[in-house]
Every structure is written in structure tokens, then in C-alpha cells.
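hey can u check if this looks right to u? its 956 residues, i copy pasted from the old doc so theres a chance i mangled smth
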Amino acid sequence: MSEQGRSLVYESGKWQVHLGRRELLSNSVVVPIGARAFEIIEVLVRSANELVTKNELMDRIWPGAMVGENTLQVHISAIRRVLGADRAMLKTASGRGYRLLGNWTPLQQGLATASVASPQMREPEAPPANNFPLIAGRLIGRAAAVRHVRDLVSAYRVVTLTGPGGIGKTSLAIEAARDLFADFDDGAWFVELASLSAPDLVPSTVASALGLKLSGEISAESVARAIGAKHLLFVLDNCEHVIDAAASLAERFTRLCPHTTILATSRELLRIDGEAVWRVPPLDVPDVEQETPDHILCHSAVELFIARTTAMGTDGAPRTEDLALIAAICRRLDGIPLAIEFAAASAATLGVAQVAAGLRDRFSLLTRGRRTAFARQRTLRATLDWSHELLTEAERRLFRRLAVFSAGFTVDAAAAIIVNTGLDAGTVMDGIANLVMKSLVAADSSDTKPWFRLLDTTRAYALEKLDESGEREQIARRHAEYFRDLFAPAETELKTQPAVEWRTDYLRQIDDLRVALDWAFSANGDAPAGVALTAAAVPLWMQLSLMEECRDRVRQALTAGNSGVRQNARIEMILHAALGASLTYSMGPVPETVAAWLRTLRLAEDLDDTEYRLRGLRGLWSYRMNVGEYRAALALADEFRDLAERQADWATVRAGNRMSALILHYMGEQADARKRIESMTRTSVAASPAPPTARLMVDPDVAAPALLARILWLQGFPDQATRTAEIAVHRASSASHTISICHALAQAACPIALWTGNLLAAEGFVTTLADLASRHALGGWIARAQCFEGALLISQGQVTRGASVLQSAIPRMGAAGSVAESPAFLAVLAHGWRLAGQLENGLAAINEALGRSVSTGEGWCTPELVRIKGEILLQLGPDQTQTAANCFDQAAVMAREQGALSWELRIGLSLCRLRVAQGRGHEGRRELASLYNRFIEGFMTADLQAARTMSGAVLQ
């Protein structure tokens, strides 16, 4: 298309289509619309009032792509939405295509029409995984800059956008990154560094943004290794005050993460190899010599100023006599976008002339500042100083006090903290509205109750003013007390409110919770308030499965108690229960874990608190089970159930039966275990609500099917086992409870997929478990996920690699004090060493597994252990044949006693191979066929397919 064609503007009534700027305007106001939708408008307006067929549109807009009519319809709907009352202009020819009606007149435009953003916003398509903040409105005057940044990011691994504060580095980086989301398979992540107080927090901040939870010291090296080969884009925002740490991190990423790209914003260069640097220019401003309206209006700094004043409610386009003043304001603000936005907000209230007059003396001072080397470093502060001086005294007090909120706030929250500190409720409410109008506070009205926040730079400035006022401690105290009271009913509300809804309500408070706790336990804080807030916040950490954070915060509160802070027994009980639960999942059954549970139980008995007696018993049961004390665990499960029965709490009785069943399952008593599980479905629950997840740590509607799935597989029902495991995973995922999801995956989905030979499903389950466990720092499940990964590799034929992974992962389970299921993983390790021909290693591993099985009583997998030992002995040489045969016979007897038909089948496969080698193949195949015929399902699973093949003619 010619340049002349691209500069055309089509006009019909109040509507304009500007081809050169690719804009749709209504009454000279830009209407936000997607790029593809605009291309459809362009095609239609060039053929105004004529039919354009659907096929023609799709060929023109999506050339060479397979696009269905649904995609076209979505874009047609978007166009109709922005046309609003004029939607009838876009007429549908049913089944054929579309016409754009109207008297569309093409005009050749030589100057840019002043345009401003409409408050309407289109709803974007869902982006790939990312945590990028939303930016309201389009990024004015940065189209070429965005394209250039995109080109740089496609060519270099590390790109740094540099320039003075307020120049728009962050907005530009976000806008460019949004266009690149689809190019990064594993997502794009925004990491804000401005709030960091120390350089050594950079690695942990990056890990937190990505959802990584790393054990041990978090460093640039460990974060980079955790990311590995993932295809990611990171925007590291505001690096200058932690430049060395940011540079170190970027250097590690370039070295250890071959598919990770970094887009950094900083006033200072990273100065590392391979860095591409681009200095972000200011918006273009009118020259002093050119003061004509046409010249002024075609500059992006002026366009931004007009857009923002219009958005603040001024009437229409600026007066001609104001354009020169606007040009002067933009020049004096050096084209820096943030400074222009502040100026525009003030102009909407005070008028352009007053703003221009107020800037004269201010910029005389700023000019001197530049000559004394402060230069652009002082420009944003000067703009903020000036904006602050325009506030009334009451607004200034409110502004600085609002800085205490870390994330956001409601009017009610602000009033609760600020009222009676010299400001009344009406002043707070009106003041927030005024601060929104002056762009010092941002508003989010997407929720039923509007939320407000100070932008990060503005908040930092306001905090300085709060410190200068001497009010910081008073406001921080009220902030901590407010959130203490806010979280106080959290546990009670969780019993009556849907968990997902409850989490949503409290999650948005978590940043302020952390700030309040940090202050409460500081030197000038209020430790008793911090202890109470910690106890009140426990349900949130538990619901979010933030076990590491819960553990550390609770330890902090208990330490304060040990240091002389008086705390009542109930709070101490809550804290010890939280400590026990968080330790169980973050560190495992270490001595501190059992001590926490014993203290919980003792305090609960002293207070006659049934809820926490149940929690204490459940915690001790989990501890005894994980260290292999199965008889003691069984007794605790019975005590738990008996206590629930005395309370007529039948739902908790069911949970007690599940606890007993799990122990019986591990001990190899599958029939009794299944009987207890199935009795749960027959127990009346009408008189009792479901027990809280916090009591059981795992959703009982997840734990029961997860255990039943294992039992079903052992008893020879692999298809039912698979379906039941999937039910457990689905229920856990629907509840969005990470602990329950990990339980369903580790207890049922991962092992059953491996046992049935469904390696594709196993790979997905193992990957999900590893990701969740790592993200939430769930130490025991991190090790278990690694064990499953090793088992999967062995099943996929990568035996040496898989055995190596298992050999390093199994001790990690032991390091956390957990021995449950370690015999089964040792058996898989022994099998891997056997396949790799390392028979001595295999024999050592299987003997260790058998020793653990005997010492703990974990007999559910003993038939498989003895079978694998027989396979290893058989491979050692002919002189071990009889010993191997004895192992198979012994394993078969144990499997029959346990009712473990699936183990019997595997043993039958081993015996059949031995019989064939001994020349007794027909006998072996007949025995195997007899086992095969006992199955009524699962014929597509690996073991049954192998049995069918090996049985051969016997099954014909």
C-alpha cells in the first residue's frame, strides 16, 4: 500500500478511521480496539456499503492461517461493541459476509488529529503464563520504541533499557514484553526490584515471582539452575539500586539458562558480556520556534498530556490558546511521561495556565539542580514535590499515611487506620477521591468494592514524607492492629465460607500482613500484637500451602513468647499446631515436629479443646507413620476416631477410619484397609459438617480415594484404580489446595500410572508434583517427586540415569526423617541396577529395602521386594537359580496372603521366565494363564499385556 493510501482518513459522521495511525476515533477520541479488529474495519471501510465475504475477510486478515468462522465472529463482536449505539452500521449478510454502512468520505490528512484515550477498554485474549500488571490505556507515543525493543529482545539474550526516572522504562518494557508472550513457551515474568532493601534479596525475589521455593541458601546460581532450560522471558524492573546483584543474576542466566531472555530496566547499565543497551528517549516535544497548533498537536508529549486531562474529565479538546502553554509544560518536563501525567492531572483540576505558572519557579530550581550534577535524577522527585505542594494539608496527611499499605486498600481499611489521627471519616473518603483525581492514588473498580493503591514510586515518596512527619510508628501500629483484627475471624469464616472464595478474600491482604508482622517484631514494634496476628494468619498460610513462610513466622512468634512476651495458652496452642503442620510438610518428621505436636496435644488437653486435640493426634499419627512406627500410628488413629465418636462427629470418624486404613495398607493388610475405607461411605454424616482441612491437613474427600486407588491396584483392579486416582486429583485440583493436590499425586496418581505402564500420564503427574512441591518448598514431596522421576526414567529405558536420580533422591527422604515407602523406591532402584547390569549394587539396594520393611513392618510391597531379589539372584549365575526360585515361591505366598493379585501377576511373570529357561515353558505359561484369567479388567496395562504375550497358546 502506498504512503498516500496509508495516510488516508475515512470519515462518516462522528466516526473516523485513521489508516496511517491505525486508529478508530469517535468524536476525535480514540476508541481502543484490537489490531486484527482494526484490520477488519480497514478492509470494510475501503469497500464501504459493499459486501465483503467471510472468506475474503479471513484471507485478507489471516493470510495462510487456518482460521474458523468463530475467530472472525469474535472480532466482529468486538467491533460492534466499540461502535456502541451505532452498531447497526456493521450489517451482517447472513451466511455470506458483512457491510459497513455510512457515508464514508476519504480525506487526505497532513496533520495528526489530537486524540485521547477513551475510558472503554477491550478485553484482551488470555495471555500465556505471566504475572504482568495491567496497564490501563494505550502507551502513547511509543509505537516505534516498542517495535525497536521487540527487535532487540529477539536478537539479544540480555537487553537493558536505561534512562532517567519517570522516562517510562517500565511501561515500555511491559508493553514490548506483552507482544512477545507467545514466543516464550514457559511464560513471561515481571520482577519488581524497587522495593528491595538489600542486594542479596534479588535472587529470592526472582524465585518468588516465578513461584520457585528453593531449599537452602537462595542465590543467583541456585535460581538459575532451578530455571534450567525453561523458555522464559524476565523483565527485571528498577535494577539500579541493586545493580551488582542484578548483573550477577543476569550473568548466571546467560550462562546456565540457554533459553531465558532478560529485559532489564535500570538507570545504570548491567555491564555484562552480551548486553544490548538502549537509552529510552523522552516523548517528543514541540520546538520553541514552532508554536502553531498543527505543529504542537503532532508531538507525543502533547498527545499524552491531552489524553490524561481528557480522561480526568475536562471538556473536549484543549482551547487553542492553551496549546502553547501545554507545549511549554511538556518542554519544561523534558518529555518525561510520568512528570507529564502528574502535570496533566493537576491541570484537570487547576487549569493549564495555573500549572504553567507554577512550573516556572520550580524549573528554575531544577535547572540549577542539573548544573550541580543532580540532573535528571532529581526531575521525578521535583515533580512529586510540586504535586505534593499542591495538596491541602489534610490531603498531605492522608497521602503520606496511605503509604503504610503495601499492596492496596479499601476506603474502609484506610478509614480504620487513619480516622482519629487528626482526620475524620468524611475527610478520608473525600481525600482518597481527590488523590485519585490528582493521579497520586490509582483506583481499581473491577471488584464489587473498589480498591486503591499508591504506585510504587509514589508510595516510596509518601513513605519518606511519613518518616519526616514523625508519624511512622503511630500509623504502623494502627496498621498492624487493623490486620490483627481483620484476620481474627478468618478461621471461623473458613468453616462457613467456600474455601476458594475465602482464599480470594484473604489472599489480597497477604502483602500487608507481611508488612504488619515485620513492623510488629521490629525493635520499635509491638510483639504481642505480632504474636496475635501470627496466630490469626495461620489459616491463610495453611490454605495457600505456604508452609515455609508459616513455619518461619510461627517460630518468630514463639521466640517472642520465650523472650518474655506474655501469650495466652490458646494462642500458644494454635502456634504449636501450625508449627507442627508446617514442619511436617517443609522439613518432615524431624524432632522439632514431634515436639510441636506433643505440646499442641498437651495444651489442648489442658484447655479441653477437642478441635486441637484432634489436630494434635492427627499430627502425631503422621509423624509416627512417616518414621515407620506403624503400630504406634495405628493406635493414634484409633484414639483419633474414638474421640470423634464421643463428639458424634461422624465426618471426622470417617477421617479416622481413613487414617487406620492407610496404616493397615502399609502393613500389607489390604482387605482390612479396604473394608475401613469403604465403611467411610456408609457412615452417617448428616449430623456433622465436613471437618476442616486444617484439622486433617489433607482434604478427606481427596485422601480416601487416593488410598483406595492404591488398594484397588494391589487387589487386581487396575482400571478402577486409575479412575479412582483421577477422582482424587480432580477433587484436589477443584479445591485449589496444594497440599491435597500433592497428596493425590504422590499417593495415587504417580505410582499407579507407573505400575500400569501409562508412562505418558506418569510423566505429566510427576512433572506437576515436582513443580508444586518445589514452588511451595514441600521438602518431603520434593524428594518423592525426584524418586518418581527416577522410576519413570527407568521405565522409559534410561536405566542408568534413572538409577542415579533415585540413588540421590532416596537419602533426601531419609534426611527429612521419612522412611514411609522408601522400601518401594529402593526396590525400583534395585530393579534399575539389575537392568543396567550392576548386580552387586542391585543386591545391596534390595537387601536394604528388605531390612527396612522388616524393621518397620511396612509389608505392602514385600512380595515385590522378594521377587526383585529373585530376579537379581537369577541374573548372578546358574548357581543361584534355586535360591531365586525360592524367592519367587516365597513372594507368591506373601502376595496371596495379602490378597495382592497384581503382585502375584508380576511374580507369575518372573516364574514363567524361569520355567522357560528350565525347559518347563508349558508349565510356566499354564500357571501364568491361570493368574491372567483371575483378572476382570486392566487388559491394556503393561503387566497384563506382557502376561498375555508370554502365556501364548495357553490363552488361545
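The radius of gyration is 34 Å.
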